[in-house]
Amino acid sequence: MFGDEARADADFRRVRLRAFFHDVLARLSGRQNRLLSFDEVKQSLRLGGPVYRGTQPVPVAQIVGSVDRYRDFDREFLPTQDHTAAKWKSVARAFYDDVSLPPVKLYKVGDAYFVLDGHHRVSVAREQGLEYIDAEVKEAYSRVPVSADLQAEDLQVLHEYREFLERTRLDEIRPQQGVMRVTIAGGYQRLIEHIALHRYFMGLDFQRDIGEEEAVAHWYDTVYMPIVEAIRKHDVMREFPGRSEADLYLWIVDHLHALRANDQAAGVEDAVEDFSGQLDERQMNRLERDADL
Q: Where are the alpha helices (DSSP H) in the chain?
């Protein structure tokens, strides 16, 4: 028993030291290091539910946040406060003594999990290299996909995506469309503007009022997808790792307008070929920065 207590003491000193170095590195690099707040995610994504899913094994690596103790642990669930020492070490001793502990309680959002109860058990499980932990799970519904590697900086884009779907209902109108991921700041608002402009010209062409649902479907089928299919045909995505088809759509539309300033006959295929032949990721990053000025 004394040996287990000494091991738990040593473990806690080690994890606190690692937490300190993680904090220093995070400050130097300017990145976020704290656990995600469930309330921030809930507010940003307007989560529905939750629905009770019962007790199940959960991948420890997918537990990324907390309901109310996100300041007591860092992103890797290392304890950041000394006042957690007694509880943390008692859980570590239980692990060494092979004592069965009750399941932790988690909220599930997409593929990510948030701790309601059992922070120290999760922290010790990660330190001991456990891949799974038993948990009582309640799942909250998110209209937008949430990955297990969710970061705080992702919330703004996911918030904009949710607003885009609520405004356009594209996920209902074209359920096969999958995830329309945009990484460009303000990109979803630009898509909404594209749809509004398309609706206006549809009204001129068809000589009648065009409903929003009809405009969204027609824009997706006759504008967005033809450009995406051209992107796929020419394998443009290979030249822009980390970007999405929706990003490329926005850039190529801009490029098409620039081409048509000199050649009214320029089409989508011309824009895609010219775009992929002239620009690389570094140039696109520069263009994106310039657009924000």
A: 2-29, 38-45, 85-96, 119-127, 155-168, 170-173, 187-206, 212-219, 225-233, 245-260, 268-278, 281-292
Give the angle subtended at the CA of 160 by the CAs of 155 and 166, to the nearest 5°: 125
Output the average pLDDT for the chain: 85
- What are residue 15's DSSP bridge partners? none
Q: Which residue has the tokens 């080690």?
A: 14
Angle at 233 between CA 231 and CA 239, to 5 degrees: 55
- Would you call 101 helix, strand, or coil by DSSP? coil
Per-residue model confidence as pLDDT tens for the chain (293 residues)? 456 788 888 888 888 888 788 777 777 776 777 789 999 999 999 999 899 999 999 999 999 999 988 888 988 888 988 888 899 999 999 988 888 899 999 999 999 999 999 999 999 999 999 999 999 999 999 999 999 988 888 888 899 999 999 999 999 999 887 778 898 778 999 999 999 999 999 999 999 999 999 999 999 999 999 989 988 888 888 878 888 899 988 888 887 766 666 656 555 665 565 566 555 444 444 444 444 44
Sequence spans of domains, the chain: 2-141, 152-292
Residues, the chain: 293
pTM (predicted TM-score): 0.80
- The DSSP output letter for 70 is T
Cα dihedral 171, 177, 179, 181 sign: negative
Angle in degrees, CA 105, 94, 1, rounded to 5: 170
Name the one residue in this structure whose structure tokens are 């822009």: 240
| C-beta separation of 73 from 60 below 8 A | no
